[in-house]
């Protein structure tokens, strides 16, 4: 089948792309930026990529005409704007407008479980998108999920951060809300299972795993599996705002995502029974099995995607392609170069920079900068990196965004998503003479930008000189 995959840069989208290719489907990925599709080149060679922003359609924008099925995986829950629901509705309407001009027979949408009378803004927005998709000429299949558990999922990472970092938790009463976690593998089975099935046309299905748990039970079961001592004390006085700040400072989530999660956590999210699992022959996994599979992928360094690599995890919601060309006019630079006797090993160290590997020199200063950034409302070092030594353009890397990761050309270009009075780049390149070029570029914004740069000069000299030495020599 010819399949259109929207939201292909997202946590679900990237994983679904791999599954569709395994099943020999012809896949067209619709993304805002082709350069940001975080998959290996051999995967890109197997697919067609079209650039389209469903919030800002270009005049005479079209989709390929001969589509069989379209996946709609576009969400704006973590947007910095307060009007994410309006954005989601507009995006859905534009999608319907374009898909109606194609031969698409089925639209598959991954939504949220919406069984309660009182819903959060996030879940109301998901329901509205469902209603808008049903106005399309193609048949619609809606899969409604709650908490998705898998390596790199926001839910898994939040529970992991809380349990690993806080042996004693003073928690708000929403930890006693019931939810219905489902393993990412089961989500993939449902998403691919309904593909092209006429008996699933114009139907909505709740999907959940084996267990209905409270958030507190999710954390205690995680702690038991990891052999961590965990004590949870529930109090009724923590406001949604305090809860959001608590999640933001303790976990790897952004503040906006924390806000939306807290608002949704007050709503019970339990799947209603249906016959879809039997129809598709899906074996459900328990919560503990989902955790086991997540850690197996992490330990094997095989995490296919992470929510932290999406643009909503950072500060900038703009097209980063225009930052690939590092400016020279009006910029301040720290340029270092050093010859290496082992360029292959040096390249591996460059490709492994950040995350748990750190920056090879003055790690405490990098951590301090991360804490300061987070206190200022930035991303800090909370995102780490998805895999220890594999990286693609579009990935997040601590408080950087990867713009170029060309191992063949031996060049890595990072753009800063930390809070700075200007724009910053960090570039590594190894030339034909085995000389490492390490360049920090800063384009200041006004006098405060220049003052910031010059105040940091002593640290830059110390940090950058040490870093390139360690990269070159090991």
TrEMBL record:
Which spans are transmembrane here? 451-468
Q: InterPro entries from the xrefs? A: DUF2867 (IPR021295), NAD(P)-bd_dom (IPR016040), NAD(P)-bd_dom_sf (IPR036291), NAD(P)-dependent_oxidoreduct (IPR051783)
Instruction: List the coiled-coil residues.
Output: none
The alphabetical list of record keywords is: Membrane, Transmembrane, Transmembrane helix
Where does the record place the NAD(P)-binding domain?
A: 7-144
A GO MF annotation of the entry reads: aldehyde dehydrogenase (NAD+) activity
Kindly indicate whether the keyword Transmembrane helix belongs to this entry. yes
Q: Name one GO cellular component term.
A: cytoplasm
What Pfam families does the record tag this protein with? DUF2867, NAD_binding_10
Q: What is the official name of this protein in its record?
A: Epimerase
Organism annotation: Nonlabens ulvanivorans
